[in-house]
Amino acid sequence: DIIPQPLLDQYLSMTDPARAQTVDTEIAKHCAYSLPGVALTLGRQNWHCLKDTYETLASDVQWKVRRTLAFSIHELAVILGDQLTAADLVPIFNGFLKDLDEVRIGVLKHLYDFLKLLHVDKRREYLYQLQEFVVTDNSRNWRFRYELAEQLILILELYNPNDVYDYLRHIALTLCSDKVSEVRWISFKLVVAILQKFYANNANALGLNFINELVVRFRHCSKWVGRQAFAFICQVGMFSLFRCVHLFWSQFG
């Protein structure tokens, strides 16, 4: 009653390999691009009509097809709701996390948008996997690490201070020592956001431990770039500057 059956059948047939040879070599990519719109039109109650097609596209040999789905999986999650997302999209999302960088970037750019739609317990499972984004197929792909830092700033709100300290803090410190200055600069903002997270949630002990770690790692770094990083962190986070000064006076007189 929503879409004429022949039209829907025609759309679903776009994943047929024979169509790629006779109609358009990128027909599967076009199908993937349009799928969120078709899903929105059909509604979540008719997701069963598209599920098999989506899974077929998600395993397509062309990375451009998988990349297209990776960039829109968060939109599809909004359309389907939390139950269908957990059952049908999370396994595909997990597959994209282990894919080529060209596919992973689609997931990474909307990581916060996807994770916030998951149940708290399911969301917490990804804390162990966020570290994997630091490693890329090509180390010169610094924009990948830049995007990770930007997403982590948003993702902080999804986790409690203890989880941030145990998992995300390590990633932030690693990114602060990146070889590319653009990555380091956005990482300084991430560090300040983590400090704000601790003090906003009255996790003062975690905040102080983190500041002490920053002092040891950067303030006393033998390389000037490390000491410069500490100065930049203080510059970015004016709210924490006075805390740092107080810490300096207490430790160094």
From TrEMBL:
GO cellular component: cytoplasm
Keyword flag Repeat: yes
Domain of life: Eukaryota
This protein's UniProt keywords: Repeat
UniProt keyword Endoplasmic reticulum, yes or no: no
GO terms assigned for molecular function: protein phosphatase regulator activity
PANTHER family per UniProt: SERINE/THREONINE-PROTEIN PHOSPHATASE PP2A 65 KDA REGULATORY SUBUNIT, WW-BINDING DOMAIN-CONTAINING PROTEIN-RELATED
Name the record gives this protein: PP4R1 phosphatase
Originating organism: Indicator maculatus (spotted honeyguide)
